[in-house]
């Protein structure tokens, strides 16, 4: 056998061996599954969220368990979270207080819910904040102007004063201040929930009412 032929056979065998090793490495790599580090259900970091007497409060103002929800009424997850929290407070009216914080997204891909938040703020001027928000949260279509006006009528608000309020600068300034607070207190988009100033990891599949109930049981 000529030296050239021997060299050719040797190179062919080497290439085949290298190819086999590469295939094995690829298969081994594909068989390895990586998992992101799981975040705790409740963050260990405490966030100082400013609360004052102008904030809507549901439940007992002096309750030991404080819930703060940042809500975009145009997002289904935020509406569902609000309904769950409001129900929980109604079941534990003495042990829990719930603060509502506006967090409507006003960007290009926003839910266009700013008017609904203004409308709820103005319903609060007539002592109907929580009933109004509860009605809006029932359906995604309720952030539309016509539906907001129907909710106001159903709650027997002074419609003229209420609508004028939604268009006034006070409501606009309220939303601007709320947006600034949300950006300074949290990352990402609404909904966001804090329990006694610690953020809840809502991405986990948890029984929220059961988890909150464990705080009351302590």
Automatic annotation (TrEMBL):
Q: Which residues form the Thioredoxin-like fold domain?
A: 53-205
Entry-linked Gene3D superfamilies: Glutaredoxin
Q: Which InterPro entries match?
A: Thioredoxin-like_fold, Thioredoxin-like_sf
Pfam families to which the protein is assigned, alphabetical = Thioredoxin_4 (PF13462)
| Protein's name according to its UniProt entry | Thioredoxin-like fold domain-containing protein
Origin organism lineage: Bacteria, Candidatus Magasanikiibacteriota
């Amino acid at each position: 056998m000529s030296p050239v032929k021997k060299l050719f056979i040797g190179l062919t065998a080497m290439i085949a061996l290298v190819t086999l090793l590469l295939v094995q490495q690829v298969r081994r790599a594909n068989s390895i599954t990586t998992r992101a580090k799981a975040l705790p259900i409740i963050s260990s970091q405490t966030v100082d969220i400013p609360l004052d007497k102008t904030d809507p409060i549901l439940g007992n103002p002096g309750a030991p368990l404080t819930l703060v929800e940042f809500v975009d009424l145009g997002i289904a997850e935020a509406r569902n979270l609000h309904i769950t929290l409001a129900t929980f407070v109604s079941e534990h009216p003495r042990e829990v207080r719930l603060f509502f914080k506006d967090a409507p997204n006003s960007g290009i891909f926003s839910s266009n819910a700013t008017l609904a938040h203004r409308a709820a703020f103005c319903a609060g001027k007539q002592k109907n904040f929580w009933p109004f928000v509860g009605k809006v949260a029932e359906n995604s279509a309720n952030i539309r102007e016509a539906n907001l006006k129907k909710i106001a009528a159903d709650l027997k608000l002074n419609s003229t004063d209420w609508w004028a309020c939604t268009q006034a600068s006070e409501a606009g300034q309220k939303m601007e201040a709320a947006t600034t607070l949300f950006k300074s207190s949290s990352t990402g988009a609404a909904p966001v929930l804090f329990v006694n100033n610690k953020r809840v990891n809502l991405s986990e599949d948890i029984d929220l009412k059961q988890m909150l109930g464990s705080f009351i049981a302590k």
